[in-house]
Design goal:
By secondary structure, this protein is of the alpha/beta class. The protein has two domains: about 260 residues, Aldehyde Dehydrogenase, Chain A, domain 1 (3-Layer(aba) Sandwich); about 190 residues, Aldehyde Dehydrogenase, Chain A, domain 2. It is built from 14 helices and 20 strands. Strands 14-15-16-13-12-17-18 form a seven-stranded mixed beta sheet, sandwiched between helices. The structure holds succinic acid (SIN).
Length: about 475
C-alpha cells in the first residue's frame, strides 16, 4: 500500500501546524522494502520549537476542567476506533505485523485513551488529619508540565496512546519523538487527536533520523519536566543520565528477558496456547514476550512435541496476507541478531528442533524456530531475542526454576504455569518482575499497571498508576484556624 494515498499526514506536527522540510527520510515497508512515504527529518532546533509550543500551551490545557479534557480524549478514542481498519493497514505496511494483530493493536491503543479520559477526572488529592489545632492539611494533584515521549516501533500506536492519553488527561502537554521506523502511525494518531479537538501545541510530533540530537534537546531542556521512554535498556540508561542535570521525572519501559515457567503440574494445552501467544505475537518483537521457556523435566518431552505441532501451524507471510500470523522482522539488524544468537546457542550445545533459517518471503522474514537444550550461560538466554524463536531450558526443581528466572538484570514480565495454587503464589512472589502471568501468556490491558523492576525500568503505564506518573502532589497547610 502507499501511505501517501491515505488521508493520514506525512508531515510533522508542531504547534498545531503540519511541518514539512527540505530534508526528509524514507519510510519503508519491511515486507517488501518499498518506500511508503518521505517524512521530515527534523533536528534539535525543531525539537526546541516543539517544546516552546508545548510550554506555551501548557497553562491553558492544565487549567481546563478535567471533564473538558476528558470530552476531547473521548472524541479521540472514538475517532481511533472509527479508523481501526485504515490505521491497521497503515501499521501493517509500516511495521510489518499481520493485519489481525494490527487491528488488535489499534483497539488496544484506543483503550488507553478511553481509560484515561475517565481516569483524568479522578486525580484526587486527600485530606490529612492535623497535628496542630489551628492547622488543616490537604494535598492537591497538579500536572507536572511539558512531557517528552520517545516511542518504539514494535507497537507504533499503542505505545504512543498509552503515553499521550495519560499525559493529556493529567493536564500535561507533550512532544513525541516516534521511532524513525514507524513515524506514519504516530502522525496518523496525532491527526486524529487534532480532529478530536486537542488544541495547538498540546500534542506535538517530531519526526527525525537524528535521535541522538533530538533526544539531547528534549532531555537537556529544563522546561521538559518529564521524560517517558519505551525502548532498550541501553538507550534508557543514556536518557536517564541526560535527564539528571534537569532532575526530570522519568518513566522508563526498557528491555525484558521474560521467563515462562511450565511446571510438571501445568495444564499442558493451556501452557502451549499461552506460550505461543506470548512468544510469537508480533513475530517475537515484544518486550514482554517469553524470551526463555523453562520447562520441568516431567513435562518437557510432551511440551516440546506440542509446541512443535503448534509452531507448524504458524503462517509466515507479509502482514497484509489475511493468512499471515508471522510477518517480517523490522530490519536487517534484527535478522542478524537472531542468526547470531542461534549460532552461539548451537555452538554451545543447543539444538534447533524446527526452523532456524531465513524464510523465502524476503530478506526480513525468519521461520518460526524452536531451540532446545538452552543453558543459562548462552547469549540467547541473556539477551532479548526479538524474533520468532522459542528458546527452551529444562529444569528439575522449583528452586532451580526461580534461580534461573531471576538470574538476569531484567525484570519486566514473567509467566508461570501450574495448577497448584500454593506453588503459583510462592513462585509469583519470588519472581523478580513487574508483571507476572499465572496460567496466562498475555496480560497487557489499559486497567493494569505495565512496567518493570531492576534494569527493565522505572514507573508504570496504564492503570491508576499511569496517571500518577504525570502528576505532582502539592501539600497545602492552612494555618491560623481559630476554634
Ligand atoms: C512492548 O513490548 O513494548 C509492549 C507490549 C504490550 O504493551 O503488551
Amino acid at each position: 500500500m502507499n501511505a501517501q494515498s491515505t488521508t493520514f499526514p506525512t508531515a510533522a506536527l508542531i504547534d498545531g501546524k503540519w511541518i514539512t522540510s527540505s530534508k526528509t527520510f524514507p519510510v519503508l515497508d519491511p515486507a517488501t522494502g518499498s518506500k511508503l512515504a518521505d517524512v521530515p527529518d527534523l533536528n534539535a532546533d525543531d525539537a526546541r520549537r516543539a517544546i516552546d509550543a508545548a510550554h506555551q500551551a501548557f497553562p491553558a490545557w492544565a487549567a481546563k476542567p478535567a471533564k473538558d479534557r476528558s470530552a476531547i480524549l473521548r472524541r479521540w478514542y472514538e475517532l481511533l476506533l472509527a479508523e481501526t481498519e485504515s490505521l491497521a493497514q497503515l501499521m501493517t505496511a509500516e511495521q510489518g505485523k499481520p493485519l489481525c494483530e494490527a487491528r488488535k493493536e489499534v483497539v488496544y491503543g484506543a483503550s488507553f485513551v478511553e481509560w484515561f479520559a475517565e481516569e483524568g477526572k479522578r486525580a484526587y488529592g486527600h485530606t490529612i488529619p492535623t497535628t496542630g489545632a489551628s492547622r488543616r492539611y490537604l494535598t492537591i494533584k497538579q500536572p507536572i508540565g511539558v512531557v517528552a515521549a520517545i516511542t518504539p516501533w514494535n507497537f507504533p500506536i499503542a505505545m504512543i496512546t498509552r503515553k499521550v492519553s495519560s499525559a493529556l488527561a493529567a493536564g500535561c502537554t507533550i512532544v513525541v519523538k516516534p521511532s524513525e521506523e514507524t513515524p506514519l502511525c504516530a502522525l496518523a494518531v496525532a491527526k486524529l487527536a487534532v480532529d478530536a479537538g486537542v488544541p495547538a501545541g498540546v500534542f506535538n510530533v517530531i519526526t527525525t533520523m537524528d535521535a541522538a540530537s533530538v533526544g539531547q534537546a528534549l532531555t537537556g531542556d529544563d522546561r521538559v519536566r518529564k521524560l517517558t521512554f519505551t525502548g532498550s535498556t541501553e538507550v534508557g540508561k543514556i536518557l536517564y543520565r541526560q535527564s539528571a542535570d534537569t532532575i526530570k521525572k522519568l518513566t522508563l519501559e526498557l528491555g525484558g528477558n521474560a521467563p515462562l515457567i511450565v511446571f510438571d503440574d501445568a495444564d499442558l494445552e493451556r501452557s502451549i496456547a499461552a506460550a505461543m501467544a506470548s512468544k510469537f505475537r508480533n513475530a517475537g518483537q515484544t518486550c514482554v514476550c517469553a524470551n526463555r521457556i523453562l520447562v520441568q523435566s516431567g513435562i518437557y518431552d510432551r511440551f516440546v512435541a506440542s509446541l512443535h505441532e503448534a509452531t507448524s501451524k504458524l503462517h509466515v507471510a507479509p502482514g497484509r496476507d489475511p493468512q499471515s500470523t508471522i510477518g517480517p522482522l523490522i530490519n536487517a539488524d534484527a535478522i542478524t541478531k537472531v542468526k547470531a544468537l542461534l549460532a552461539d546457542a548451537v555452538a554451545k550445545g543447543a539444538k534447533i528442533e524446527v526452523g532456524g533459517t531465513p524464510d523465502a518471503h524476503g530478506p526480513l522474514f525468519f521461520t518460526p524456530t524452536i531451540v532446545t537444550g538452552v543453558k543459562p550461560r548462552m547469549a540467547i538466554a541473556n539477551e532479548e531475542i526479538f524474533g520468532p524463536v522459542a528458546s527452551l531450558i529444562r529444569f528439575d526443581t522449583e528452586a532451580e526454576a526461580i534461580a534461573i528466572a531471576n538470574d538476569t538484570p531484567y525484570g519486566l514480565a514473567a509467566y508461570l504455569f501450574s495448577q497448584n495454587v500454593s506453588r503459583a503464589w510462592r513462585v509469583a512472589e519470588a519472581l523478580e518482575a513487574g508483571m507476572v502471568g499465572i496460567n496466562e501468556g498475555m496480560f497487557s490491558n489499559e486497567v493494569a499497571p505495565f512496567g518493570g523492576v531492576k534494569q527493565s525500568g522505572l514507573g508504570r503505564e496504564g492503570a491508576q498508576e499511569g496517571l500518577e506518573e504525570y502528576l505532582e502532589t502539592k501539600f497545602l497547610c492552612i494555618g491560623g484556624i481559630t476554634s
